[in-house]
């Protein structure tokens, strides 16, 4: 009886996850380096927390079932405690600060970059693993800490190459939002669901406009497909007050603040939020950021169950065209706010906190579209070809590789099957190598090597059409003394770099 042939394992990427190649990783590293430099300029220092935390420490997704995996990826440890992959970088920071509270300087200023995980349905541009880059100040009760982070967010955008006028840092305050809810009679736990519906309607202003928000504040709205979204059920008078609040933003900070004062003067909480915005506005003005970079905007709604004071959002305002020529805006690429209650969950004392998070993938896409990132080809290593396989020859090739590496030049000896020389050059070409080093037995006897300029070779190959001319020209290949290997390769790499600069300028 013939043996049953076992099926080969199918290679497949899990849904909601993505592989990343060298070009994307290099672009990401370049962007993260600029953000890191900006954060450090403001006095923030790095800290790293693990990807796993005990599930009950995460705060947002507390276990309410036998398996607490709603929104997060969880597993049970051998001591029967549930652990989950972090869904953001803030909850782990809160745990870290609480656990090390006595030894940390206060205020504690830190930044972190890392992948976070969401156990949610994936979709176009929506992944289960993505990177965030956060900066937080813990232990600073004044809104001057919030204002500083907003200014840092602005500086970050500009240092990344986003021109002034192509972005805005929009600022609001949850206390102002809560004040509006008080004014229209929606304070108290019994109105929690209605408040949430109202604030979600306000958050859709950019997409639906004033009329669309007005419908959602009332009975509801039917979209173009015919689907109906139930509204908050507010009366006309209450809805008008909410809309007046949403439209209270003005060209100047002072006028916006006056508009808000008039709208929520009857709410102590709301008035407190307005004064905090006024303080931040004065700081923005003193530092020169009220020139369109930072804007007080009452329509900003973030973290409805998370933030307790100022909230802010970094928004890209420029338009690009999609594949069908339609205008598209990237919108928000980062945001944050004050979350005074998060660290306090672990403590017997209040711990005021504020922070900002950059959405790395969305910001990368925007920078790539602007031509600020990922435009340069990744140069591969110099490839030392293997012409002879005997041990003495291999030792010579290895010595050449080591000389290049010692001089700080990326280099490798070809490790594949050396029988076909053409395959080695094909390999070097696919690696985008700047040049290949060739030395057969004859060159070794003469104390020479051949250097093949692969960049120039590509250019010439596009111009030479017949094999005879190609063979006669031996494009971009020249002999040098073996002892001059490093000097000649450096000279070639320098010339290639100069050519790239000239091409980019032209």
TrEMBL record:
Source organism: Pseudovibrio ascidiaceicola
Principal EC category: ligase
PROSITE patterns per the UniProt record, alphabetical: AA_TRNA_LIGASE_II (PS50862)
Keyword ATP-binding: yes
Domain Aminoacyl-transfer RNA synthetases class-II family profile as annotated: residue spans: 29-381
Keyword Protein biosynthesis: yes
Name listed for the protein in its UniProt record: Histidine--tRNA ligase
Catalytic reactions on record: tRNA(His) + L-histidine + ATP = L-histidyl-tRNA(His) + AMP + diphosphate + H(+)
Record's keyword terms, sorted: Aminoacyl-tRNA synthetase, ATP-binding, Cytoplasm, Ligase, Nucleotide-binding, Protein biosynthesis
Family: Belongs to the class-II aminoacyl-tRNA synthetase family.
């Amino acid at each position: 009886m013939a043996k049953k042939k076992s099926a080969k394992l199918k290679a497949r990427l899990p849904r909601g996850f993505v592989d990343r190649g060298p070009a994307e990783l290099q672009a990401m590293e370049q962007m993260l380096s600029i953000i890191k430099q900006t954060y450090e300029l403001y006095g923030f220092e790095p800290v790293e927390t693990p990807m796993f935390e005990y599930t009950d420490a995460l705060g947002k997704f507390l276990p309410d079932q036998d398996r607490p995996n709603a929104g997060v990826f969880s597993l049970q440890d051998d001591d029967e405690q549930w652990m989950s992959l972090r869904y953001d970088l803030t909850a782990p920071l809160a745990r870290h600060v609480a656990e090390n509270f006595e030894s940390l300087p206060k205020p504690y200023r830190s930044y972190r970059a890392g992948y976070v995980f969401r156990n949610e349905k994936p979709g176009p541009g929506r992944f289960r693993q993505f990177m965030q880059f956060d900066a937080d100040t813990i232990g600073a009760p004044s809104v001057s800490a919030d204002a500083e982070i907003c200014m840092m967010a602005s500086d970050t955008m500009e240092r990344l190459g986003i021109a002034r006028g192509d972005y805005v840092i929009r600022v609001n305050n949850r206390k102002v939002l809560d004040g509006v809810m008080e004014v229209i009679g929606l304070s108290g736990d019994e109105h929690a669901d209605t408040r949430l519906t109202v604030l979600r309607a306000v958050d859709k202003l950019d997409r639906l406009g004033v009329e669309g928000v007005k419908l959602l504040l009332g009975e509801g709205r039917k979209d173009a497909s015919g689907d109906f979204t139930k509204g908050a059920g507010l009366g006309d008078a209450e809805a008008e007050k909410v809309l007046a609040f949403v439209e209270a933003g003005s060209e100047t900070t002072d006028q916006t603040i006056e508009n808000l004062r008039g709208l929520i003067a009857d709410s102590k909480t709301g008035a407190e939020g307005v004064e905090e915005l006024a303080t931040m506005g004065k700081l923005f003005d003193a530092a020169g950021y009220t020139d369109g970079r930072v804007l007080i905007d009452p329509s900003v709604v973030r973290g409805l169950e998370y933030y307790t004071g100022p909230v802010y959002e970094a928004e890209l305002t420029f338009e690009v065209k999609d594949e069908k020529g339609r205008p598209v805006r990237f919108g928000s690429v980062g945001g944050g706010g004050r979350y005074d209650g998060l660290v306090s969950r672990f403590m017997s004392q209040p711990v005021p906190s504020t922070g900002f998070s950059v959405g790395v993938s969305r910001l990368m896409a925007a920078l790539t579209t602007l031509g600020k990132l990922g435009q340069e080809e990744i140069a591969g290593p110099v490839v030392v070809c293997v012409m002879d396989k005997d041990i003495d020859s291999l030792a010579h090739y290895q010595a050449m590789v080591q000389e290049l590496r010692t001089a700080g030049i990326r280099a490798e000896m070809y490790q594949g099957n050396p029988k076909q020389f053409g395959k080695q050059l094909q390999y070097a070409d696919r690696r985008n190598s700047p040049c290949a080093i060739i030395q057969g037995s004859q060159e070794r006897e003469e104390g020479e090597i051949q250097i093949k300029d692969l960049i120039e070779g590509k250019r010439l190959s596009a111009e030479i059409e017949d094999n005879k001319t190609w063979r006669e020209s031996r494009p971009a290949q020249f002999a040098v003394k073996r002892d001059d290997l490093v000097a000649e390769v450096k000279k070639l790499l320098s010339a290639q770099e100069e050519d790239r600069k000239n091409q980019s300028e032209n």
